[in-house]
């Protein structure tokens, strides 16, 4: 079979799951603080409540998955908590100031090499979300 005869196995990243300890509080926070849009009312899947949100611009879908477990979407990288979700910002400084002024827990803006900058946001369940700008966006 030649390379041109191969079908792609995947078309894109479908969605990102983020655990939420209180789904109603998290829905409100993601809408009011981050400006995400609730795509449909929360619903029950085979495990618990789920909410579907997305940024006003873009095609990424975030699924908040309610859990009673003490967990986050973060993982350890060299012993430090590390985020699994990044939201791109056309104006990083504006976004940082706007979120900070609205009471969102944010880190300082940091450089990632010469071509990117980011800061971290902490949601009500303790998930870290990266807000980023880079020359690749």
TrEMBL record:
It comes from the Bacteria. The keyword Lyase applies. GO terms for molecular function: lyase activity. InterPro entries: Glyas_Bleomycin-R_OHBP_Dase, Glyas_Fos-R_dOase_dom, VOC_core. PROSITE patterns: VOC (PS51819). Residues 12-134 form the VOC domain. Keywords: Lyase. Pfam families: Glyoxalase. The keyword Lyase applies. This is Enzyme related to lactoylglutathione lyase.
